[in-house]
Amino acid sequence: MQLTWKDNFLSYDRVLERDLGSGPDSAMDPAIALFVLVHGLKTGAFTIRKLADFVSERGCGDVNARRCMNGLDRAEAIAGLARDFEAQRRD
Fold first, then answer.
1. CA distance readout (Å), 71 to 12, 17, 18, 26, 89
2. Mind giving me the DSSP string for 69-83?
3. Is 54 helix (H, G, I), strand (E, B) or coil?
């Protein structure tokens, strides 16, 4: 996960009450990066689409789940990784 674009940094400045915009490397701090990842996917902060729109008890290998973060960029490959993970988890 990589936080990009100034607007995203400024948005998380407000959420975290920190100044990420002037020191963007601070977004690489593991605790901050994890928060941004989970919060963004849970709330739809990155694209308006939430991970819950695509992931349920039935599974998570849906190509469209990529829309939560970067549209359909490499969506098929990433969905394949998710399907492989789900298959290993069931074994």
1. 20, 28, 28, 25, 26
2. TSTTTTHHHHHHHHH
3. coil
* pLDDT at residue number 59: 64
- 3-state secondary structure (DSSP) of residue 59: strand
What's the pLDDT at 61?
Answer: 62
Amino acid 48: pLDDT: 92
Distance, CA of 47 to CA of 88 (rounded, Å)? 29
Point out the residues of the chain with pLDDT beneath 70.
Answer: 1, 59-61
Report whether 41 contacts 53 (CB < 8 A): no
Answer for the pair 14, 21: CB distance below 8 angstroms, yes or no.
no
73 neighbors 47 (Cβ within 8 angstroms): no
Neighbouring residues of 8: CB distance < 8 A, sequence distance ≥ 6: 45, 46
Whole-prediction pTM value? 0.76
